[in-house]
Structure formats: C-alpha cells, structure tokens
Write a structure and sequence with these properties.
168 residues, mainly alpha, 8 helices
Length: 168
C-alpha cells in the first residue's frame, strides 16, 4: 500500500513530465530527488527520536527543533528581504503559527499512532500542496497527477482501515 502511495506521489510530482527527459532539467531533477531523499531520512530519524523522548511535551520538542533548524538555516537567509516590517510579520506568523502549531500537533500524534500510520499520513503533504496549487493559484492538473491523487488517497484510506481493524 505504501508503494502505491509512493507511485502516486511520483505521479503528482512529475505529472506528464515524468516521460520528458530534457537534459537541462534532468540534473536539477536528480539534485531535487537527492535532496528529497536526504530530507526523508532526517524526517524519519526525527520521528523515531521523538517517539523515544519521554517526559518532554510536544511543544518543547517543537520549540527545540524549530530553533535548531532556524539557527542552521540562518547563513542562507537574505536579511535585506526579511528586515522589513511586513517581512518580519510574515516570518513570525509562518514560524510560530504555521510551523510551531503544526509541529506541536504532529509530535503529540507521533507518540499515539503507529509508524506505518505516520508513513501513510506523510503522503498527504503533496496532496495538500497540489490542492492548494489548484484552488489558490489556478494550476491545472494533468491526468497523471489526478491518478496520483487517487493512488495516494486510496492507499492512505487502506492503511487507515487496516490499522483500525488491528486496534479492534
């Protein structure tokens, strides 16, 4: 089931371009795949680490992770674009509300659900991005992207049904 979700994510990500091998874009594609793979490894590691941490609230875990991440990314920040009043407001809202609240909810849930369920739920990230692209930015989806959406959603529902039968 997770394999079909992975295929769905690939279809969502590439759409009809999955068969287009333009040499200029291909090196960027490989770099993107490599960076996504490294990010997935770190995501898995932090998820496993968070499950093992006891006696620490999800809010505190989120606080540490966001601050460590912010510190590590600081050398890549273009301060001329952020050091405006509106720029600082956007960064604070994005960092505190969106990222902070999301991590608190995520780390609270990670301790209560199975690793298999966490993997299935993580496939909803690209679906959410694609739906926002569709609704907010008016991006038109290809037939392969719709097929990817269906694969991911069916896989996630299947995992949820299997997990609910295990609990009962």
């Amino acid at each position: 089931m997770l394999l079909s979700a992975l295929v769905g994510v690939l279809l969502i990500s590439f759409g009809d371009n999955i068969f287009d091998h333009n040499q200029d874009d291909f090196s960027s594609l490989y770099l993107g795949i490599a960076l996504a793979f490294v990010a997935a490894i770190f995501y898995a590691l932090i998820t496993l680490l968070t499950r093992r941490v006891e006696g620490m609230s999800p809010a505190l875990i989120a606080f540490f992770q966001v601050n460590i991440g912010s510190f590590l990314l600081l050398p890549f920040v273009d301060s001329t674009k952020i050091m405006t009043e509106s720029g600082l407001i956007y960064v604070i809202v994005l960092g505190v509300v969106h990222t902070g609240v999301m991590y608190i909810l995520l780390y609270g849930a990670v301790r209560k659900i199975t690793i298999y369920s966490i993997a299935a739920i993580s496939f909803f990230y690209p679906i959410t991005a694609l739906i926002i692209d569709l609704l907010v930015f008016g991006v038109e989806l290809t037939s392969l992207q719709y097929l990817g959406l269906v694969l991911v959603m069916c896989s996630s529902v299947s995992v949820s049904l299997i997990e609910s039968k295990r609990i009962i």
